[in-house]
Write a structure and sequence with these properties.
The chain is of the alpha/beta class. The protein contains twelve helices and twelve strands.
Length: 316
Amino acid sequence: MKLHQLQALMAVADHGGIRSAARALDLSQAAITRALRELEEEQGLPLLARHAGGARLTSAGLTLLPHARQIASQLEKAQRDLASLRGEAPTRLCVGITPWFGQTLLGAALRAFRQEMPSVQLELYEGLQAVSLALLRSGQMQFALGPAGGLPGQEFSHQVLAHYPMRVLARIDHPLQAARSLGQLLEHDWVMNFTQAGQHALMHQLFGRHGLSIAPGRIVCAQSSAMLSSLIVDGGLLGYSPAPMLLCEPLRSKAQALTLDEPLEAGDISVIHLRDQALDPAARCLVRCLEQALKACSRSRDADDRRLADMLRLSF
């Protein structure tokens, strides 16, 4: 099993056919076909199924694909680490950014980062845990900026930058906008973001510790902040979300936090990375810029910055 064969497999998966894969890798179609045929012969399994519109991976190809991505990612990480030992500046940085930070302070942080490291290519993901944890584990992502609650400590390390309130949200004209207890909300549909492994802990955090329970069918798990916001605003669902999301559109102008008798736990925004993977110079620089943006927010005279600063309790 050779790297160029795995790269061909990944390219076909990403681009939907041999011709497009060849164009993406700047190789001939014959070279891509030969690499994949050699891999199929070596493994004794068909990896591609060709069709009129291109090609798709077979079940064997789909089984091999995540391993191929992990191998390629680990090789890239090894190259970065060795380049760092040679004193070379990093050329690429992949990070995940929690949605509310991405829509508030990220611009200021990136301007500062660009001044220090103008040659580094950034790749940014919306840092919801279901996406970020998989990319961190594969080595593709250096760190994620987001909540660290419920992370397996034996696998991940985190540095808390700030705490914020969690809020139950509803659109402004919601029929339950005057509710004062979680118990009044149990027969309504909710939308939240969580990983499958973290669902039980979240349900206990929000309902169970108050002696309440909610039918699982009442909960929609949205793995997108845009979808979550739309279901609150347009779908009329209740949401459980960081308070800073109220500063982001469309929630900013169309949703409100309910005033409830039950105390809700605080959330956190943390720098999360694999326990055995140190941050490279570019990642450490971006973390400094993120901290600077948070500090500047607390000193700003801008009304939106002040509203955000009032929601945050810095930890550094």
